[in-house]
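Protocol step 6 of 9: fold each sequence in the batch and record its C-alpha coordinates directly after the sequence line. For illustration, a two-sequence batch is reproduced in full.

Sequence one:
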Amino acid sequence: MHALPAPYLLFLGDVTEPGFAKTAFGLRDWAGDRCIGEHALPNASVTTGLERLTPAEAAARGARAMVIGVANQGGVIPPGWMPELLAAIEAGLDLVAGMHRRLGEIDALREAAARHGVRLHDLRVPPADLPIATGRKRSGRRLLTVGTDCALGKKYTALAIARGLAARGVDAMFRASGQTGIMIAGQGIAIDAVIADFAAGAAELLSPDAAPEHLDVIEGQGSLFHPAYAAVSLALLHGSQPDAFVVCHQPGRQGILGTPGYPVPPIEAVIEQTVLVGRLTNPAIRCVGISLNTGGMTEQEAARVIADTGAQLGLPAADPIRGGEAFERLLDACQG
Protein backbone atom coordinates (compact mmCIF):
# COMPACT_ATOMS: atom_id res chain seq x y z
CA MET A 1 0.00 0.00 0.00
CA HIS A 2 1.17 3.53 -0.80
CA ALA A 3 -0.42 6.42 1.12
CA LEU A 4 0.59 9.47 -0.91
CA PRO A 5 -0.04 13.05 0.26
CA ALA A 6 -2.57 14.82 -1.97
CA PRO A 7 -3.38 17.05 -3.73
CA TYR A 8 -0.59 16.89 -6.29
CA LEU A 9 1.27 19.28 -8.53
CA LEU A 10 2.16 17.37 -11.70
CA PHE A 11 5.72 17.92 -12.96
CA LEU A 12 6.19 17.50 -16.72
CA GLY A 13 9.93 18.20 -16.84
CA ASP A 14 11.08 19.00 -20.37
CA VAL A 15 8.85 16.47 -22.17
CA THR A 16 8.03 17.03 -25.84
CA GLU A 17 6.54 13.59 -26.61
CA PRO A 18 3.06 13.03 -25.10
CA GLY A 19 3.72 9.29 -24.73
CA PHE A 20 6.45 10.02 -22.20
CA ALA A 21 4.04 12.08 -20.04
CA LYS A 22 1.65 9.20 -19.52
CA THR A 23 1.96 9.37 -15.74
CA ALA A 24 0.70 12.96 -15.69
CA PHE A 25 -2.14 12.16 -18.09
CA GLY A 26 -3.09 9.05 -16.15
CA LEU A 27 -3.36 10.98 -12.90
CA ARG A 28 -5.30 13.77 -14.58
CA ASP A 29 -7.80 11.33 -16.09
CA TRP A 30 -8.18 8.79 -13.26
CA ALA A 31 -7.31 10.79 -10.14
CA GLY A 32 -8.28 14.29 -11.22
CA ASP A 33 -9.67 15.15 -7.81
CA ARG A 34 -6.12 14.82 -6.46
CA CYS A 35 -4.45 17.09 -9.06
CA ILE A 36 -4.18 20.82 -8.44
CA GLY A 37 -2.08 21.94 -11.42
CA GLU A 38 1.02 21.31 -13.52
CA HIS A 39 4.58 22.60 -13.58
CA ALA A 40 7.13 22.27 -16.38
CA LEU A 41 10.41 23.57 -17.71
CA PRO A 42 10.18 26.31 -20.38
CA ASN A 43 11.13 23.94 -23.24
CA ALA A 44 8.39 21.40 -22.44
CA SER A 45 5.72 21.31 -25.16
CA VAL A 46 3.34 18.81 -23.54
CA THR A 47 0.53 19.92 -21.25
CA THR A 48 -2.23 18.21 -19.31
CA GLY A 49 -4.40 21.29 -19.63
CA LEU A 50 -4.27 21.94 -15.90
CA GLU A 51 -3.32 25.36 -14.60
CA ARG A 52 0.40 26.14 -14.70
CA LEU A 53 1.67 26.80 -11.18
CA THR A 54 5.05 27.17 -9.54
CA PRO A 55 5.71 24.89 -6.58
CA ALA A 56 5.28 27.84 -4.22
CA GLU A 57 1.94 28.77 -5.82
CA ALA A 58 0.75 25.17 -5.64
CA ALA A 59 1.75 24.90 -1.99
CA ALA A 60 -0.15 28.10 -1.22
CA ARG A 61 -3.26 26.51 -2.79
CA GLY A 62 -2.96 23.40 -0.65
CA ALA A 63 -0.79 21.05 -2.68
CA ARG A 64 1.12 18.57 -0.54
CA ALA A 65 3.33 16.87 -3.12
CA MET A 66 4.85 17.32 -6.54
CA VAL A 67 4.59 14.17 -8.63
CA ILE A 68 7.03 13.53 -11.46
CA GLY A 69 4.52 12.90 -14.22
CA VAL A 70 7.11 11.62 -16.69
CA ALA A 71 7.82 8.03 -17.72
CA ASN A 72 10.87 8.53 -19.91
CA GLN A 73 13.13 5.90 -21.44
CA GLY A 74 15.33 4.44 -18.73
CA GLY A 75 13.44 6.18 -15.92
CA VAL A 76 16.11 8.83 -15.51
CA ILE A 77 16.09 12.13 -13.61
CA PRO A 78 18.07 14.59 -15.78
CA PRO A 79 20.28 17.21 -14.11
CA GLY A 80 18.15 19.94 -15.69
CA TRP A 81 15.21 18.93 -13.47
CA MET A 82 17.10 19.40 -10.23
CA PRO A 83 16.39 23.13 -9.66
CA GLU A 84 12.64 22.51 -9.98
CA LEU A 85 12.71 19.46 -7.72
CA LEU A 86 14.64 21.43 -5.10
CA ALA A 87 12.21 24.34 -5.47
CA ALA A 88 9.33 21.99 -4.70
CA ILE A 89 11.09 20.72 -1.58
CA GLU A 90 11.82 24.29 -0.48
CA ALA A 91 8.13 25.11 -0.94
CA GLY A 92 7.31 22.34 1.54
CA LEU A 93 6.12 19.74 -0.98
CA ASP A 94 6.90 16.04 -0.80
CA LEU A 95 8.31 14.55 -4.00
CA VAL A 96 6.70 11.47 -5.56
CA ALA A 97 8.31 9.52 -8.38
CA GLY A 98 8.20 6.16 -10.08
CA MET A 99 11.52 6.47 -11.90
CA HIS A 100 14.24 3.84 -12.02
CA ARG A 101 16.58 6.50 -10.62
CA ARG A 102 15.29 6.81 -7.09
CA LEU A 103 14.85 10.15 -5.40
CA GLY A 104 16.36 8.84 -2.19
CA GLU A 105 19.60 7.99 -4.01
CA ILE A 106 20.25 11.62 -4.97
CA ASP A 107 22.22 13.31 -2.20
CA ALA A 108 21.02 16.86 -2.93
CA LEU A 109 17.36 15.84 -2.78
CA ARG A 110 17.78 13.68 0.30
CA GLU A 111 19.62 16.43 2.17
CA ALA A 112 17.13 19.13 1.13
CA ALA A 113 14.18 16.94 2.17
CA ALA A 114 15.75 16.45 5.60
CA ARG A 115 16.29 20.19 6.02
CA HIS A 116 12.74 21.11 5.06
CA GLY A 117 10.96 18.22 6.77
CA VAL A 118 9.41 16.69 3.66
CA ARG A 119 9.44 13.12 2.33
CA LEU A 120 10.68 11.49 -0.85
CA HIS A 121 8.36 8.76 -2.16
CA ASP A 122 9.90 6.23 -4.57
CA LEU A 123 7.24 3.91 -6.00
CA ARG A 124 9.40 1.83 -8.33
CA VAL A 125 10.70 -0.19 -5.41
CA PRO A 126 9.68 -3.86 -5.45
CA PRO A 127 8.72 -5.65 -2.24
CA ALA A 128 11.47 -7.47 -0.40
CA ASP A 129 11.85 -11.25 -0.57
CA LEU A 130 9.88 -11.78 -3.77
CA PRO A 131 9.47 -15.45 -4.74
CA ILE A 132 10.38 -16.98 -8.06
CA ALA A 133 7.39 -18.10 -10.10
CA THR A 134 5.89 -21.51 -9.50
CA GLY A 135 3.61 -21.74 -12.52
CA ARG A 136 0.95 -23.14 -10.17
CA LYS A 137 -2.63 -22.56 -11.31
CA ARG A 138 -4.35 -20.13 -8.92
CA SER A 139 -8.02 -19.89 -8.09
CA GLY A 140 -10.09 -16.99 -9.37
CA ARG A 141 -10.11 -15.45 -12.84
CA ARG A 142 -7.64 -13.10 -14.53
CA LEU A 143 -7.68 -10.74 -17.49
CA LEU A 144 -4.54 -9.02 -18.80
CA THR A 145 -4.26 -6.05 -21.14
CA VAL A 146 -1.51 -6.43 -23.75
CA GLY A 147 -0.40 -4.01 -26.45
CA THR A 148 0.96 -3.57 -29.94
CA ASP A 149 3.32 -1.02 -28.34
CA CYS A 150 3.96 0.78 -25.06
CA ALA A 151 2.09 3.94 -23.93
CA LEU A 152 -1.11 3.44 -25.91
CA GLY A 153 -3.81 2.52 -23.40
CA LYS A 154 -3.19 -0.71 -21.48
CA LYS A 155 -3.61 1.00 -18.11
CA TYR A 156 -6.66 3.02 -19.21
CA THR A 157 -8.23 -0.12 -20.63
CA ALA A 158 -7.66 -2.15 -17.47
CA LEU A 159 -9.03 0.65 -15.28
CA ALA A 160 -12.09 1.12 -17.50
CA ILE A 161 -12.83 -2.60 -17.66
CA ALA A 162 -12.47 -3.04 -13.89
CA ARG A 163 -14.67 -0.02 -13.21
CA GLY A 164 -17.23 -1.03 -15.84
CA LEU A 165 -17.55 -4.58 -14.55
CA ALA A 166 -17.72 -3.42 -10.92
CA ALA A 167 -20.62 -1.15 -11.91
CA ARG A 168 -22.39 -4.26 -13.18
CA GLY A 169 -21.94 -5.93 -9.81
CA VAL A 170 -19.03 -8.13 -10.89
CA ASP A 171 -16.36 -8.82 -8.27
CA ALA A 172 -13.56 -7.20 -10.30
CA MET A 173 -10.37 -5.46 -9.16
CA PHE A 174 -7.74 -3.43 -11.00
CA ARG A 175 -4.20 -4.68 -10.38
CA ALA A 176 -1.47 -2.10 -10.98
CA SER A 177 1.84 -3.24 -12.42
CA GLY A 178 3.43 0.16 -13.13
CA GLN A 179 4.17 3.46 -11.45
CA THR A 180 1.11 5.37 -12.65
CA GLY A 181 -1.30 2.57 -11.87
CA ILE A 182 0.16 2.36 -8.37
CA MET A 183 -0.34 6.11 -7.89
CA ILE A 184 -3.97 5.77 -8.96
CA ALA A 185 -4.84 2.58 -7.08
CA GLY A 186 -2.62 3.10 -4.05
CA GLN A 187 -1.16 -0.38 -4.36
CA GLY A 188 0.57 -2.71 -6.80
CA ILE A 189 4.03 -3.84 -7.91
CA ALA A 190 6.17 -2.09 -10.51
CA ILE A 191 7.08 -5.20 -12.47
CA ASP A 192 9.80 -3.51 -14.53
CA ALA A 193 11.76 -2.73 -11.36
CA VAL A 194 11.97 -6.40 -10.34
CA ILE A 195 15.09 -8.49 -10.97
CA ALA A 196 14.39 -10.67 -14.00
CA ASP A 197 14.45 -14.00 -12.14
CA PHE A 198 11.70 -12.79 -9.81
CA ALA A 199 9.50 -10.83 -12.25
CA ALA A 200 7.06 -13.66 -13.02
CA GLY A 201 6.91 -14.46 -9.31
CA ALA A 202 6.01 -10.84 -8.61
CA ALA A 203 3.22 -11.11 -11.17
CA GLU A 204 1.92 -14.21 -9.37
CA LEU A 205 1.98 -12.27 -6.11
CA LEU A 206 0.14 -9.36 -7.75
CA SER A 207 -2.93 -11.51 -8.46
CA PRO A 208 -3.11 -14.17 -5.72
CA ASP A 209 -5.63 -16.95 -5.18
CA ALA A 210 -9.17 -15.58 -5.09
CA ALA A 211 -12.80 -16.66 -5.01
CA PRO A 212 -13.90 -18.56 -8.14
CA GLU A 213 -15.97 -15.65 -9.50
CA HIS A 214 -13.45 -12.93 -8.67
CA LEU A 215 -11.78 -11.26 -11.66
CA ASP A 216 -8.42 -9.50 -11.43
CA VAL A 217 -7.97 -7.03 -14.28
CA ILE A 218 -4.20 -6.72 -14.61
CA GLU A 219 -2.49 -3.71 -16.11
CA GLY A 220 -0.17 -4.76 -18.91
CA GLN A 221 3.32 -3.41 -19.55
CA GLY A 222 5.33 -2.82 -22.71
CA SER A 223 4.77 -5.12 -25.67
CA LEU A 224 6.00 -8.54 -26.71
CA PHE A 225 7.13 -6.80 -29.92
CA HIS A 226 9.10 -4.01 -28.23
CA PRO A 227 12.87 -4.56 -28.56
CA ALA A 228 13.51 -2.99 -25.14
CA TYR A 229 10.48 -3.95 -23.06
CA ALA A 230 9.40 -7.38 -24.32
CA ALA A 231 11.06 -9.08 -21.34
CA VAL A 232 8.80 -7.42 -18.76
CA SER A 233 5.76 -8.11 -20.96
CA LEU A 234 6.62 -11.81 -21.08
CA ALA A 235 7.24 -12.09 -17.33
CA LEU A 236 3.92 -10.39 -16.61
CA LEU A 237 2.13 -12.68 -19.05
CA HIS A 238 3.60 -15.87 -17.58
CA GLY A 239 3.09 -14.82 -13.97
CA SER A 240 -0.42 -13.46 -14.48
CA GLN A 241 -1.60 -16.69 -16.15
CA PRO A 242 -4.52 -14.79 -17.71
CA ASP A 243 -7.61 -16.67 -18.74
CA ALA A 244 -8.39 -13.81 -21.11
CA PHE A 245 -6.57 -10.86 -22.64
CA VAL A 246 -7.52 -7.68 -24.47
CA VAL A 247 -5.20 -6.27 -27.12
CA CYS A 248 -4.67 -2.51 -26.96
CA HIS A 249 -3.78 -0.60 -30.11
CA GLN A 250 -3.55 2.97 -31.38
CA PRO A 251 -4.73 3.18 -35.00
CA GLY A 252 -2.36 5.22 -37.12
CA ARG A 253 0.74 4.66 -35.01
CA GLN A 254 3.37 3.40 -37.40
CA GLY A 255 6.53 2.86 -35.36
CA ILE A 256 7.37 1.50 -31.91
CA LEU A 257 7.63 4.47 -29.53
CA GLY A 258 11.20 5.66 -29.06
CA THR A 259 12.69 2.89 -31.21
CA PRO A 260 13.18 3.96 -34.85
CA GLY A 261 13.17 1.19 -37.41
CA TYR A 262 10.71 -1.07 -35.59
CA PRO A 263 7.16 -1.00 -37.01
CA VAL A 264 4.06 -1.48 -34.88
CA PRO A 265 2.90 -5.08 -35.43
CA PRO A 266 -0.61 -5.94 -36.65
CA ILE A 267 -3.14 -6.85 -33.99
CA GLU A 268 -3.38 -10.37 -35.41
CA ALA A 269 0.32 -10.93 -34.74
CA VAL A 270 -0.06 -9.81 -31.12
CA ILE A 271 -2.97 -12.19 -30.60
CA GLU A 272 -1.03 -15.09 -32.11
CA GLN A 273 2.15 -14.39 -30.13
CA THR A 274 0.33 -13.83 -26.82
CA VAL A 275 -1.56 -17.12 -27.13
CA LEU A 276 1.58 -18.96 -28.20
CA VAL A 277 3.74 -17.91 -25.25
CA GLY A 278 0.88 -17.53 -22.76
CA ARG A 279 -0.04 -21.21 -23.08
CA LEU A 280 3.03 -22.09 -21.03
CA THR A 281 1.22 -21.20 -17.78
CA ASN A 282 -2.41 -21.19 -18.96
CA PRO A 283 -3.21 -23.50 -21.89
CA ALA A 284 -6.74 -22.06 -22.03
CA ILE A 285 -5.66 -18.43 -22.63
CA ARG A 286 -7.76 -16.59 -25.23
CA CYS A 287 -8.25 -13.12 -26.67
CA VAL A 288 -11.68 -11.66 -25.84
CA GLY A 289 -11.51 -8.25 -27.48
CA ILE A 290 -9.69 -5.22 -28.80
CA SER A 291 -9.25 -1.82 -27.15
CA LEU A 292 -8.57 1.05 -29.54
CA ASN A 293 -7.09 4.40 -28.57
CA THR A 294 -8.97 6.72 -30.94
CA GLY A 295 -7.95 9.97 -29.27
CA GLY A 296 -7.73 12.73 -31.88
CA MET A 297 -10.34 11.15 -34.16
CA THR A 298 -13.82 12.51 -34.76
CA GLU A 299 -16.76 10.47 -33.49
CA GLN A 300 -17.47 9.30 -37.04
CA GLU A 301 -13.85 8.30 -37.71
CA ALA A 302 -13.62 6.46 -34.41
CA ALA A 303 -16.89 4.62 -34.96
CA ARG A 304 -15.73 3.49 -38.40
CA VAL A 305 -12.34 2.25 -37.17
CA ILE A 306 -13.95 0.43 -34.23
CA ALA A 307 -16.53 -1.25 -36.46
CA ASP A 308 -13.99 -2.20 -39.12
CA THR A 309 -11.55 -3.64 -36.58
CA GLY A 310 -14.24 -5.71 -34.90
CA ALA A 311 -15.49 -7.07 -38.21
CA GLN A 312 -11.98 -7.84 -39.46
CA LEU A 313 -10.98 -9.78 -36.34
CA GLY A 314 -14.34 -11.23 -35.34
CA LEU A 315 -13.94 -9.81 -31.83
CA PRO A 316 -15.65 -7.00 -29.90
CA ALA A 317 -13.71 -3.76 -30.36
CA ALA A 318 -14.18 -0.49 -28.51
CA ASP A 319 -12.53 2.64 -27.22
CA PRO A 320 -13.12 2.38 -23.45
CA ILE A 321 -12.81 6.13 -23.03
CA ARG A 322 -15.57 6.80 -25.55
CA GLY A 323 -17.73 4.06 -24.01
CA GLY A 324 -21.07 3.40 -25.68
CA GLU A 325 -22.57 0.17 -26.97
CA ALA A 326 -19.25 -1.04 -28.36
CA PHE A 327 -17.66 -0.86 -24.92
CA GLU A 328 -20.62 -2.64 -23.35
CA ARG A 329 -20.08 -5.50 -25.80
CA LEU A 330 -16.40 -5.59 -24.83
CA LEU A 331 -17.43 -5.75 -21.17
CA ASP A 332 -19.78 -8.64 -22.02
CA ALA A 333 -16.83 -10.55 -23.44
CA CYS A 334 -14.61 -9.75 -20.47
CA GLN A 335 -17.31 -10.75 -18.00
CA GLY A 336 -17.92 -14.08 -19.69
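Sequence two, same batch, same settings:
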Amino acid sequence: MALFESDVPIREVVTTDPEKAKALENDVRAKILDMLADEEMTIEGIHKELQRRGEDKAETTVRHHVNVLKDAGMVEIARLEEAGGGTRKYYKSNTRVFSYDLPEDSDQTLSAAQDHTTEELRTLLTSLYEAHGDDIEAVAEELKPCEYCATQHYEEFLLRELLNRALLDLNESGALDEIVAGGE
Protein backbone atom coordinates (compact mmCIF):
# COMPACT_ATOMS: atom_id res chain seq x y z
CA MET A 1 0.00 0.00 0.00
CA ALA A 2 1.36 3.39 -1.01
CA LEU A 3 1.90 6.02 1.64
CA PHE A 4 1.45 8.77 -0.91
CA GLU A 5 0.20 8.78 -4.46
CA SER A 6 -0.21 11.67 -6.85
CA ASP A 7 -0.89 12.12 -10.53
CA VAL A 8 1.98 14.39 -11.57
CA PRO A 9 1.30 16.29 -14.80
CA ILE A 10 3.99 17.74 -17.04
CA ARG A 11 4.29 21.41 -16.01
CA GLU A 12 7.50 22.43 -17.74
CA VAL A 13 9.08 21.57 -21.07
CA VAL A 14 12.67 22.37 -21.93
CA THR A 15 13.61 22.03 -25.57
CA THR A 16 17.26 22.21 -26.44
CA ASP A 17 19.91 20.10 -28.02
CA PRO A 18 22.39 18.19 -25.83
CA GLU A 19 25.30 20.55 -26.67
CA LYS A 20 23.33 23.59 -25.50
CA ALA A 21 22.18 21.74 -22.38
CA LYS A 22 25.80 20.97 -21.49
CA ALA A 23 26.77 24.60 -22.11
CA LEU A 24 24.08 25.76 -19.66
CA GLU A 25 25.25 23.44 -16.87
CA ASN A 26 27.24 26.35 -15.45
CA ASP A 27 25.39 29.38 -14.05
CA VAL A 28 28.23 31.73 -15.08
CA ARG A 29 27.47 30.86 -18.71
CA ALA A 30 23.81 31.79 -18.20
CA LYS A 31 24.99 35.15 -16.82
CA ILE A 32 27.25 35.63 -19.83
CA LEU A 33 24.33 34.89 -22.19
CA ASP A 34 22.23 37.43 -20.33
CA MET A 35 24.96 40.06 -20.61
CA LEU A 36 25.54 39.39 -24.30
CA ALA A 37 21.84 39.35 -25.20
CA ASP A 38 21.64 43.14 -25.14
CA GLU A 39 25.22 44.24 -25.78
CA GLU A 40 28.25 42.99 -27.67
CA MET A 41 31.29 42.71 -25.43
CA THR A 42 34.93 41.69 -25.44
CA ILE A 43 36.31 39.05 -23.08
CA GLU A 44 37.72 41.90 -20.98
CA GLY A 45 34.31 43.58 -20.84
CA ILE A 46 32.59 40.33 -19.91
CA HIS A 47 35.22 39.76 -17.20
CA LYS A 48 34.62 43.22 -15.68
CA GLU A 49 30.83 42.85 -15.81
CA LEU A 50 31.02 39.42 -14.16
CA GLN A 51 33.14 40.94 -11.39
CA ARG A 52 30.55 43.70 -10.98
CA ARG A 53 27.90 40.96 -10.64
CA GLY A 54 29.93 39.19 -7.94
CA GLU A 55 31.61 36.52 -10.06
CA ASP A 56 35.37 36.71 -9.51
CA LYS A 57 36.69 34.57 -12.36
CA ALA A 58 40.06 34.72 -14.09
CA GLU A 59 39.97 36.17 -17.58
CA THR A 60 41.13 32.81 -18.98
CA THR A 61 38.14 31.15 -17.28
CA VAL A 62 35.81 33.73 -18.83
CA ARG A 63 37.37 33.02 -22.24
CA HIS A 64 36.78 29.28 -21.68
CA HIS A 65 33.10 29.88 -20.81
CA VAL A 66 32.60 32.08 -23.88
CA ASN A 67 34.24 29.41 -26.06
CA VAL A 68 31.92 26.72 -24.66
CA LEU A 69 28.94 28.93 -25.49
CA LYS A 70 30.38 29.67 -28.94
CA ASP A 71 30.99 25.97 -29.63
CA ALA A 72 27.36 25.27 -28.63
CA GLY A 73 26.22 27.88 -31.16
CA MET A 74 24.80 30.22 -28.50
CA VAL A 75 27.33 33.05 -28.90
CA GLU A 76 28.81 34.51 -32.06
CA ILE A 77 31.53 36.96 -32.93
CA ALA A 78 29.65 40.17 -33.67
CA ARG A 79 32.55 42.38 -34.62
CA LEU A 80 36.31 42.37 -35.09
CA GLU A 81 38.33 45.49 -34.40
CA GLU A 82 42.01 46.27 -34.88
CA ALA A 83 43.63 47.02 -31.56
CA GLY A 84 47.31 47.52 -30.72
CA GLY A 85 48.70 45.23 -33.40
CA GLY A 86 46.08 42.57 -32.79
CA THR A 87 42.42 41.94 -33.25
CA ARG A 88 39.77 42.55 -30.58
CA LYS A 89 36.75 40.25 -30.74
CA TYR A 90 33.30 41.38 -29.67
CA TYR A 91 30.83 38.64 -28.79
CA LYS A 92 27.02 38.70 -28.86
CA SER A 93 24.50 36.12 -27.74
CA ASN A 94 22.00 34.71 -30.23
CA THR A 95 20.22 32.91 -27.38
CA ARG A 96 18.06 34.27 -24.58
CA VAL A 97 17.61 32.28 -21.40
CA PHE A 98 14.61 33.05 -19.20
CA SER A 99 15.09 31.95 -15.62
CA TYR A 100 12.26 33.40 -13.55
CA ASP A 101 10.10 32.12 -10.74
CA LEU A 102 6.45 33.06 -11.18
CA PRO A 103 4.76 34.67 -8.18
CA GLU A 104 2.72 32.28 -6.04
CA ASP A 105 -0.65 33.70 -7.09
CA SER A 106 0.17 33.86 -10.82
CA ASP A 107 -1.73 30.64 -11.67
CA GLN A 108 -4.96 32.18 -10.41
CA THR A 109 -4.24 35.62 -11.92
CA LEU A 110 -3.35 34.19 -15.33
CA SER A 111 -5.88 31.33 -15.52
CA ALA A 112 -8.24 33.16 -17.90
CA ALA A 113 -5.29 34.18 -20.10
CA GLN A 114 -4.04 30.58 -20.13
CA ASP A 115 -7.50 29.26 -21.08
CA HIS A 116 -7.70 31.82 -23.89
CA THR A 117 -4.18 30.96 -25.08
CA THR A 118 -4.93 27.23 -24.99
CA GLU A 119 -8.01 27.61 -27.20
CA GLU A 120 -6.23 29.95 -29.63
CA LEU A 121 -3.27 27.57 -29.85
CA ARG A 122 -5.58 24.59 -30.42
CA THR A 123 -7.03 26.42 -33.43
CA LEU A 124 -3.60 27.55 -34.66
CA LEU A 125 -2.00 24.11 -34.31
CA THR A 126 -4.94 22.39 -36.00
CA SER A 127 -4.61 24.80 -38.92
CA LEU A 128 -0.83 24.40 -38.97
CA TYR A 129 -1.04 20.62 -39.02
CA GLU A 130 -3.70 20.65 -41.75
CA ALA A 131 -1.53 22.90 -43.94
CA HIS A 132 1.93 21.52 -43.11
CA GLY A 133 1.45 18.17 -41.36
CA ASP A 134 3.21 16.23 -44.11
CA ASP A 135 6.28 18.49 -43.82
CA ILE A 136 6.29 18.23 -40.02
CA GLU A 137 6.04 14.44 -40.18
CA ALA A 138 8.79 14.26 -42.83
CA VAL A 139 11.19 16.25 -40.63
CA ALA A 140 10.15 14.21 -37.56
CA GLU A 141 11.15 11.02 -39.37
CA GLU A 142 14.65 12.45 -39.89
CA LEU A 143 15.21 13.47 -36.25
CA LYS A 144 17.73 11.49 -34.28
CA PRO A 145 16.50 9.99 -31.01
CA CYS A 146 16.96 12.08 -27.88
CA GLU A 147 19.81 10.57 -25.90
CA TYR A 148 17.94 11.15 -22.61
CA CYS A 149 14.51 9.85 -23.63
CA ALA A 150 13.13 6.34 -23.94
CA THR A 151 9.97 7.71 -25.52
CA GLN A 152 10.29 10.11 -28.42
CA HIS A 153 7.96 13.04 -29.03
CA TYR A 154 9.23 14.27 -32.37
CA GLU A 155 6.11 16.05 -33.59
CA GLU A 156 5.59 17.76 -30.22
CA PHE A 157 9.20 18.95 -30.30
CA LEU A 158 8.75 20.32 -33.83
CA LEU A 159 5.54 22.14 -32.95
CA ARG A 160 7.23 23.73 -29.93
CA GLU A 161 10.20 24.65 -32.10
CA LEU A 162 7.92 26.29 -34.68
CA LEU A 163 6.17 28.29 -31.95
CA ASN A 164 9.51 29.37 -30.48
CA ARG A 165 10.80 30.42 -33.90
CA ALA A 166 7.61 32.37 -34.60
CA LEU A 167 8.01 34.21 -31.29
CA LEU A 168 11.64 34.93 -32.18
CA ASP A 169 10.57 36.31 -35.57
CA LEU A 170 8.02 38.57 -33.87
CA ASN A 171 10.67 39.70 -31.39
CA GLU A 172 13.25 40.45 -34.08
CA SER A 173 10.77 42.40 -36.19
CA GLY A 174 9.77 44.53 -33.19
CA ALA A 175 6.17 43.28 -33.32
CA LEU A 176 6.44 41.65 -29.87
CA ASP A 177 7.57 44.96 -28.33
CA GLU A 178 4.67 46.74 -30.05
CA ILE A 179 2.19 44.19 -28.68
CA VAL A 180 3.57 44.48 -25.15
CA ALA A 181 3.76 48.29 -25.33
CA GLY A 182 0.18 48.40 -26.60
CA GLY A 183 -0.96 46.57 -23.48
CA GLU A 184 0.68 49.04 -21.09
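Proceed to step 7 once all outputs are recorded. Observation for sequence two: The mean pLDDT is 89.
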